Amino acid sequence: MSFDNTIPLRTLTDEVMPQLAAAETLLHNTLRSILAVTRDPAQRARCEQQQEVLDLELFRIRLNFDSLLRRHAGAVAAMAGAGAGDPGPVLQLDSAEAEAVRSARRLCEQIKALRAGAPDFR
């Protein structure tokens, strides 16, 4: 699903955020595993750089998600009492928040490349 400047709150909380958390865990565990066994200094340096890039990207995404959820705190509280089938309100995203959603989706796609043995987070 593609998002421009809006996203249903339920999609953000039940799809995008959990997928991002799973991606973060998998990516960190994989990079740690590679670092634990690699003897090649170039490979080690590349993995360490990827870890730094990943951490910075995740920080930026979380910062924007936190801002978005704070801005829409009333809608988040109202949705907590709604049924699971209720998509909740459609949230208006500013440009940084929209980019954070796109980045989160992109990270999830990069897991596929990582699993295929080609870790590249550029």
Task: Summarize this structure briefly.
The chain has 4 helices and 2 strands; from the N terminus they run βαααβα. The protein is mainly alpha-helical and 122 residues long.
Class derived from helix and strand content: mainly alpha
Average pLDDT rating: 86
The share of residues in helices is: over 70%
Any low-confidence stretches, pLDDT <50, length ≥5? none
Which helices and strands, and how do they pair?
Layout: E1 6-8, H1 9-37, H2 41-71, H3 73-80, E2 90-92, H4 95-115
Antiparallel strand pairs: 1-2
Helix pairs in contact: 1-2, 1-4, 2-4
Description of the molecule:
The mean pLDDT is 86. The chain has a two-stranded antiparallel ribbon with strand order 1-2. α1 (9-37) packs antiparallel against α2 (41-71) and α2 runs antiparallel to α4 (95-115). By secondary structure, the chain is mainly alpha-helical. Helices cover 73% and strands 5% of the residues. The protein contains 4 helices and 2 strands. It starts with 5 loop residues before the first strand and ends in a 7-residue tail after the last helix. The chain has helices at residues 9-37, 41-71, 73-80, 95-115, and strands spanning 6-8, 90-92.
